[in-house]
Write a structure and sequence with these properties.
single chain; 174 residues; alpha/beta; 8-stranded mixed beta sheet; two-stranded parallel sheet; 3 helices; Transpep_catalytic_dom; LD_TPept_cat_dom; transferase
């Protein structure tokens, strides 16, 4: 009986999602890759903390994508600079960092892959320890300062970016 009652509310939530998404998205600032990178070897990902947007350019410039994102919740959690994609994982597991466990001791030490995983469906691991561009199942986070340091995307957007980006893709977070 409970399952029957939950289904209509889930459907209503899904129907209402687009308006919730519009409220969360901040204004985008489109950049030129040339203002941030010397070349597009292996492609480029630009993460703009202020406009809460992620841009992607393919190596041959045939593909350009712009995605809304979540960004770190505070300047203390934000790392800026140049890095690169060093690993790609579909269905990532997740372990809170030591500082996250200090702030949230009730969190489990490990989250297996799945719908409740904080990294969503896909993750691009960066050369900086603990930093990722990853998905999220919590769509309320997109367009907000809500992460513990990572850049978050809707699961459907990270799946698309995951397919486009390769290990070695250069990344700038600014």
């Amino acid at each position: 009986m409970i399952g029957l009652l939950a289904a209509p509310s889930l459907l209503r939530a899904q129907e209402q999602e687009p308006s919730a998404v519009r409220r969360n998205i901040s204004s985008f600032s489109a950049d030129l890759w040339q203002d941030h990178f010397d070349n597009l070897q292996h492609g480029a990902i630009l993460c703009d903390i202020d406009s809460r947007a992620v841009q992607y350019w393919s190596e041959d410039e045939s593909v350009y994508k712009l995605y809304p994102s979540s960004v770190p919740a505070s300047e203390e959690l934000t790392r800026r600079g140049y890095t690169e994609v060093i690993r790609k994982v579909e269905g990532p597991s997740w372990r809170p960092t030591p500082s996250m466990k200090e702030r949230n001791p009730e969190w489990p030490d490990y989250w297996p892959p799945g719908p409740d995983n904080p990294l969503g469906t896909h993750a691009l691991y960066l050369s900086w320890q603990y930093y990722r561009v990853h998905g999220t199942g919590d769509t309320r986070k997109i367009g907000r300062q809500s992460s513990n340091g990572c850049i978050g995307l809707y699961n459907e957007h990270i799946a698309e970016l995951f397919a486009l980006a390769e290990v070695g893709t250069q990344v700038r977070i600014f």
